[in-house]
Amino acid sequence: MPLSLHNTLTRKKELFEALDSKNVGMYVCGPTVYDFAHIGNARPVIVFDVLYRLLRHLYGDAHVRYVRNITDVDDKINAAAAANCESIRELTERTAKAFHEDVAALGCLPPDVEPRATEHIPQMIAIIEKLIAQGNAYVAEGHVLFSVKSDADYGKLSHRNRDEMIAGARVEVAPYKRDAADFVLWKPSSPELPGWHSPWGRGRPGWHVECSAMSAEHLGETFDIHGGGLDLIFPHHENEIAQSECAHGGKPFARYWLHNGFLMVEGAKMSKSDGNFRIIRDVLAEAPGEAARMAMLMGHYRDPLDWTSERLTQAKQGLDRFYLAMRGMADVPAATIPDRILAALEDDLNTPQAIVVLHELVGELNKAETDEEKARLKGELIAAGAVLGLLQQDPEAWLKGDKDDAAEIDDLVAQRIAARKAKNFAEADRIRAVLAMKGILIEDNAGGTSWRRAG
RNA sequence: GGCCGGAUGGCAGAGUGGCGAUGCAGAGGACUGCAAAUCCUCGUACCCGAGUUCGAUUCUCGGUUCGGCCUCCA
Question: Does A366 contact strand B, using a CB cutoff of 7 Å?
């Protein structure tokens, strides 16, 4: 079954065909490193990680190039560094490191290339110079601005026209703009702000050019997939298209645009002022990263998703069911990914459906009568989990957790086994109650007694 | 104001122009010393109103509602 993806450019699900049938390139807008990433930031990282894993399966690991940038020059960074009394470098390094830890805990593979904006300033300047030379940009009061009117195609991604934008503008237009819709490519820096020498004096790039520069540098002028959050469609991605296509002589920029939906927290929009704001770190303190990943993938990437504690608990329970089914089984050789999993994912990344298939496989595993069949299903489950970035842990490790009281628990469990053997059920139940107080569940199976941590 | 999405049973969440996905929760049963886990059985959900149709949750139009963008934002 072929891969189809919803393309924001056409607002339709389209058959995906890579520009080069052997290799795929994907660019995803990464974090601006000025603060801890929140759960909304995690959504695209997880979603595009699944797409990355799927593409690697379809094209081969060496034939997918995933580029996710780090924006380390931005006015929010400048403001946060000043507020924290730390240097910009300290802030961006510290925050980028925290981001890497967070997304690794969520089971995301690192991208193939993680370019930093500050390392691509010459490329940005080159693009800007070209745009000026072609009349797509102009210099005004130390700024360089992109002339939206010079681009007849402007608005094709967000499907809005220039007049509508002007009509809806809620912000005062800077006096040096020739047209209200024009946006900044380069702006002057005062001595205390980060800046680079340029033909227009010491300054720093505007927000959008960096992605044009970095994607061209690492994927070429035209590439396959560009992803990001819904909110980036306008203005960020629209402006990226305008700059890139004008700078590249009208050559198409990204061919498939994918955007993930927004996230709410406990039924309300996430906002700092309401305190309705959940950073990844706090979520990881509440549940294992794999549960958070599962909670995210329980929803389709384009739909709105309400992030609740209940959802996280449900995700954790689902994983318990999966790992419980695989518990106590010998290691199995890697199986191929079941077709029904691929069918779900190839249908515009239908991860909720893929999770349903996981449940089906577990049901079949639980009902399987022969060891061969069980082993086959376990192998399929692990292979299916691998494309989703789930189920790669040792079941014992998942079910028992990594607290250091395991020896003590094993001891109590042994005492209970002895009591049961002596038919002293009152004592056995007493010990079970003691363990329950510690959050430990006891399971007496045909194969013996095992324990796991509850909730 | 303009533009764009979503609305499915107690909850989560696929999908389809006509056979009530799937998981959780709940009821009953099997198994168990008792439990847990597992298995079996059990539910007439598709926001509202029109229209198209033999038939609509699924298509069309209108409305309601939630959310997004238009300004930094995943």
Answer: yes
Query: Cβ within 7 Å of strand B: which of A 55-114?
Result: 76
CATH of domain A287-398: 1.20.120.640
Q: Cβ of residue A231 near strand B, that is under 7 Å?
A: yes
Gap from A156 CA to B11 C1', Å: 40
Other CB atoms closer than 10 Å to residue A388's CB: what's the count?
Answer: 26
The answer, yes or no, to whether ipTM is higher than 0.90 is yes
A408 CB below 7 A from strand B atoms:
no
pLDDT digits (tens, 9 = 90+) for A153-178: 888 898 876 665 555 454 557 788 88
What is d(CA A233, CA A227) in angstroms, rounded to the nearest whole number? 10
pLDDT tens, position by position, A315-357: 999 999 999 999 988 889 888 999 999 999 999 999 999 999 9
* All CATH 3.40.50.620 domain ranges in chain A, comma separated: 4-263
Question: Is the C-beta of residue A318 closer than 7 Å to nucleic acid chain B?
Answer: yes
Question: A379 CA to B16 C1', in Å?
Answer: 32
Provide the whole-model pTM: 0.95
- Residue A13's contacts (CB-CB under 8 Å, 6 or more residues apart) are A4, A5, A6, A7, A348
SS3 A388: helix
**Which superfamily is assigned to A4-263 in CATH?**
HUPs (3.40.50.620)
